Amino acid sequence: MAYKALYRTYRPNGFQDVAGQQHIVKTLQNAVQQNKIAHAYLFCGPRGTGKTSIAKIFAKAVNCTGEGNKPCLTCENCLAITEGNHPDIVEIDAASNNGVEEVRNLIEKVKYAPIKGKYKVYIIDEVHMMSTGAFNALLKTIEEPPAHVIFILATTEPHKVLPTIISRCQRYDFTKVPNNDIAEYIDKILKKEAVNCSDEAVRLIAQLADGGMRDALSILDQCIAYAQNNIEAHHVNEIYGIATIEDKLTLLESVFQKEAGKVLNEIEELTAKGTDLKRLTTDLINLLKETVIYDYTKDASLLRIISVEEVQRLKVNNDIDKRLNMIDVLMQTFDKYRNAASVRSYFEVCLLKMMNISGEPVILQKNEATTVSHKPTESSDLSEFTETKQNGKQVEETEKIVQVANDVSRETNNDEFAESAFVSDDDSSSEPELTMVMEMIPEEQASETPSAQAYENKSANPLKDEFILQLLVGANKQEKKKVNDAFTHLDDYLYELNWAKHASLIKGAQNIASGEQYVVLAVENQARANEINENDKNNEFISFTRELFHQDKKIFAVTFEQSKQVIQIFKERMLSNSLPEAIQFENVGKNYEAEEAHELTPEESILNLFGESHVTVTEE
């Protein structure tokens, strides 16, 4: 006798054999017991979740002539349906019978009474493949079929079925089968087949099936053929290119330790073994998710993939926020795979982004320099620093600075920073951990402090952290409120010919600090920050900011990531009482609120819009 695949051999024969879908099983059983049989059913859900199997079981139940629970599986009708030769149970593949002519033939046959059973049951699989004309031809029959006819429509894509068809059916949504139910079903089959299989291998098979019982049994079939009745986890890994738990933990540890070279080598090894990087991405998401769940609950019973000891390995020097940010990076990368020409390149960049999340320097070659890192005490609020032993004016000044820093800190702890935290730049990545590289640095170079003049000479480059610190020290809440109020009118300038391009440049930027002479904005990337900073000497841009704020104010831009790093440095410098002096600018701060706005001539408007280099004004 020819070999029969496991998913065909062990197809459930009765409601008691169905794995999962208990809400559907219970409803159909009650309908049979109460003799409340509908004329049309729509079974929809993912592949391999039991739609066709339950349709056949239901067909047995409504035609069963046995006593007790139905189907009895012993009467003539039940046996005939199980063997697939019952004349009143008609299975139709809508993928190959999707035309109007096929539906007309079906309608002609529907009117004939059943030959053997009480009901004639039509099971139409993949019903979404039917054409619109075929649906419309079937519509009247679905709505008012003969009393002896039951239609069961099955589909994986219910959104493609006409709403008029759906409204005439009882709809049952099948869900993915839970991994525990799949594992239990596999264990039963293994006992019947006399096959040895480790618990870890069963768990992997259930995980690979992704909620589909048919997929699970197909995978088991392949593993039995490969491992010859003695299946271990490594057999499943080898067949389907799955990284082992140890491989994943080692890779994540290298990411946490910021060893870029080691990470790239491990990716090379995994790729050489045929590991599916898309699946590895989802596995890393699930690993990190379990560590976060355990941190919140301390309940080991909620761990499905790793043990408590393995959770501890992944928690070394990594707080929950960092791990959640890593999960965000992995999920964003997984979404981009569909359009990726090289999945491996995307995956490598993803891990490099994860290494950069905490702001610590990436270790490219460990032997070139000895790095000593001291992590400052983390605090959600800077106000605790006011409890130092200070008095008089110093306390008042400190509290003022703390208030500004708190305002900035609260605004930088929102979800908008999640994506921008992955943008790397050389100046900002090495600051916040107070990293000291033991190399020879000239003393005079180390003691340099950025000044306003230094900024004037090099405005196109990323701003130095020390310079931003000076800006934060001089900021105050009242000025920030004024700037925020001005920003509420920013959209009005988008429709003005003179100011549109300048308004669009700063639209969406975050006001993180403001002083009497300046505004500090945070944007999503360094390129945009540079563009804003380069406009500092642009007369048109200066005129626009004067129009917006009714005052001369310099605008400085940094990335969201750099702003968070500077706030951390601010806290550290507060502890050591070493904050710099507030910066002052010359010829800035004049109030223009009372002055009349200068009305530009048409020639000036054109020059503002296109630039002097692209326009030549000639006199006639």
UniProtKB/TrEMBL annotation:
Class of enzymatic activity (EC top level): transferase
UniProt-listed Enzyme Commission number(s): 2.7.7.7
A GO biological process held by the record: DNA-templated DNA replication
Lineage, broadest ranks: Bacteria, Bacillati, Bacillota, Erysipelotrichia, Erysipelotrichales
Gene Ontology molecular function terms on file: 3'-5' exonuclease activity; ATP binding; DNA binding; DNA-directed DNA polymerase activity; metal ion binding
InterPro entries given in the database record: AAA+_ATPase, ClpA/B, DNA_pol3_clamp-load_cplx_C, DNA_pol_HolB, DNA_pol_III_gamma-3, DNA_pol_III_sug/sutau_N, DNA_Rep/Repair_Clamp_Loader, HLD_clamp_pol_III_gamma_tau
Catalysed reactions, as listed in the record: DNA(n) + a 2'-deoxyribonucleoside 5'-triphosphate = DNA(n+1) + diphosphate
Disordered: region residues: 369-395
Keyword Plastid applies: no
Gene name of the encoded protein: dnaX
Similarity comment: Belongs to the DnaX/STICHEL family.
Any one GO cellular component localisation term in the record: DNA polymerase III complex
Superkingdom of source: Bacteria
Protein name: DNA-directed DNA polymerase
Keyword Magnesium: no
Domain AAA+ ATPase: 37-178
Biased amino acid composition, Polar residues: 369-393
Keyword line: ATP-binding, DNA replication, DNA-directed DNA polymerase, Metal-binding, Nucleotide-binding, Nucleotidyltransferase, Transferase, Zinc
Organism: Copranaerobaculum intestinale
